[in-house]
Amino acid sequence: MGVIGPFQKLLQAAMEEGIDLVIQGAGSRSDIFEIAKKYNVPVFIIASSAKVAKKAEDAGASAVVIEGCDAGGHLGFPEGHPFRKTIDIIKETVQTIKIPVIAAGGIFDGKDIIQMLRAGAKGVQMATRFVATNECDADDKFKQAYISSKEEDIVIIKSPVGLPGRAIKNSFAEKILNGTAPKVNISECEGCIGPVCNKAYCILKALENARNGDTENGLIFAGANVFRIKEIVSVKKLIDELTAQANQILAKEPLIQ
Questions:
Q1: Average pLDDT of every residue of the chain
Q2: pTM passes above 0.85
Q3: Same domain? 112 vs 54
């Protein structure tokens, strides 16, 4: 995330360790391109509009990840901006920029993947589906919250960074929604996301609590289709399933871009 305090130090360390790619969300910082260029590492920028995607291209991004309103976690639609579907933004963006466009947000199965490719995306980014895998290092209670969720359990909360976020309803999410979430203890604040945080509650602590298994005192971010997940599987099984679904569609109607 571009807004975190020690961003430059973390990025520099990652570059020195020989990473292959940087995908940056929460804004596009100019210094990331300067550092990445030094190490010859491509940078992908997450955007939620063709306008932001164009700025990323002009700044030096190698590709953009277009994330629509069905994504989990923070959504790139500030107050006053209407939520938009990924596929609609994809169609605009591929007409606006020349670098590759990756689709993200609400992609659940092989049918969704093919739909995004037909709209002009060069690939997809998926997160929610891969939480419910054996290999994911989140606590089992976090994964179980995904599996046991229902469609009506999915809520939009307000993040202390000023953006909406999609989460599974639990005790902590309800406190956020009714304005009773515990405020940040200034003496304990690490300033992890700097001045953009309004300190309504500590999102770092809330996310870590959930990830570590305290699902009642934590924030369980998830995509809009999380309620469709019914079991924990291996990454291999999930990849095989997605590939088989996509190939079945392509066998009937080949992809033409």
A1: 91
A2: yes
A3: yes
